[in-house]
Amino acid sequence: MPTINNINYSDDLKTVLGTEFIDSKTVKIIDSVEKINKNAFRLCKMENVILPNNLKYIDESAFEYCKNLKNIILPQSLLQIGGSAFRNCTSLTNVKLSPNIKEIDFLAFDNTPFLESLKNEKELQIYEKYLVNGKNVNKEEIIIPKDIEIMSNNCFFHSGIIKSVSLENTKITEIPKSCFHLCNHLNEIFFSNNIEKINSHAFAGCSFKKVIIPASVKEIDTYAFYGNSSLSEVIILSNNIDLDEDIFAYCNSIDTIYMSENAIEKNPLFARKHDYKIKPLTLDMLLDNGCSLKNLQKILISDEKNIEI
Fold it and tell me: b/e map of 151-188 (b: 16 or more CB within 10 Å)?
């Protein structure tokens, strides 16, 4: 295990494994590093870190409790920031996020001056295209700003007051893991037509009675709507979609799921496993539920046999 300037690296010099005693104000990580492991710099006392241009992943708690850390520039190569990565860095004021980050995990910047500086008039904490934190909002209706492209995992976790969320005009393509988990009063969601994936536990423990999945969605991950005990009807507009068989686990009030024949054929385990009534989409049913002409056209063109005219 190579050690350079009291930093322990993997044999291929691509991963920071941990540290020895660090007493310098500035730490420079060697250029070949692509990943910083869990707890690698936890409790260290440096004020500045120079990250390599090849860095892709910062694992959970990597810099947690680095209370003297003031500034950090995250390189263009960075794709993921793990949970609590910079949590309790109580001097961390200046952070420059990479525009290429795909995932910011739970509490990544919790209890930092940087996070507090991001609050806007809607109590959302936003950095450019990233919605970093929304769990402190004190409103029943939330409209996500149109410039937002990425929300952090657990972004609104346990925000019990929220009843309605609109994503309609955003550029968001994924609902991240546990984004609205345990928002137990949330009963209304307006998706944009850009949404392609709903990740695990995204809406677990919410209070929906009806859910309409837009035609743009290609994948819904496990337990996405886990424990929505009031949910009775689901309308899935997408023809080309992958459905985990446990999407609606413990949604014991579901009576009917409407979906196209293509979607049913593509997801046999989902269709067979549960006691739901699986019914084909019909034009009247879609119009009754306010589906847009744009979505109807997609369904009619790609799966005409399922639409009764």
Answer: bbbbbbbebeebeebebeebebebbbbbbbbbbbebbb
pTM (2 d.p.): 0.88
| Domains in the chain with CATH codes | 1-117 (3.80.10.10)
Q: What is the mean pLDDT of the chain?
A: 90
pLDDT of 309 reads 32
**Token code pair at residue 268:** 């046999």
Secondary structure of residue 297 in the 3-state scheme: helix
Q: What is the pLDDT of residues 147-199, one digit of tens each?
A: 999 999 999 999 989 999 999 999 999 999 999 999 999 999 999 999 999 99
Residues in the chain: 309
Is the CB of residue 72 less than 8 Å from the CB of residue 94?
A: yes
Alpha-carbon distance of 287 to 125, in angstroms, equals 37
Question: What type of residue sits at position 11?
Answer: D
